[in-house]
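User: I'm curious whether this sequence folds into something compact or stays loose and floppy. Could you predict its structure so I can see for myself?
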Amino acid sequence: MVVGEETTYRSQLVNRAESPAHPFRFQMPLLATVPVHRVMSEPRLLISNGMSQNDAKLALTKEHLPGAPVVDERDRLLGVLQLRSLAGSQDGGETSTPETLPLVEWPTVAKTGHLDVVIDRLTSRSVNWTSVLTAKG
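Assistant: Here's the prediction. I'll summarize afterward.
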């Protein structure tokens, strides 16, 4: 029972507008109607997990990218390699494995998802791109 500003629920929000999900559900409803696959683009660079750290650093620098997805031999996402994590690396050019590349977790969305989910993932992690996963992974 609510009487004035008093409530029996201590964590209850005063109104829906105070909910963190409110802007996505109520202020930007069109985003939920746009499928991810209609606006996604192919990555400018994919790094294979067998690439040396030196080659990965050169590829990222050449493309002017702060990071890129790292995939295995079946194009499954393993993580993201960021240029800043390679800044001081001297690996001598030997082939890397997923265990030796300094991968970071990155937000992902399903190809069948919608833009409201994309915006949520981007803003919650303070990043400006995300990987889109197909049913294959």
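Summary: The chain is about 25% helix and 15% strand. Residues 115-125 form the longest helix (11 residues).
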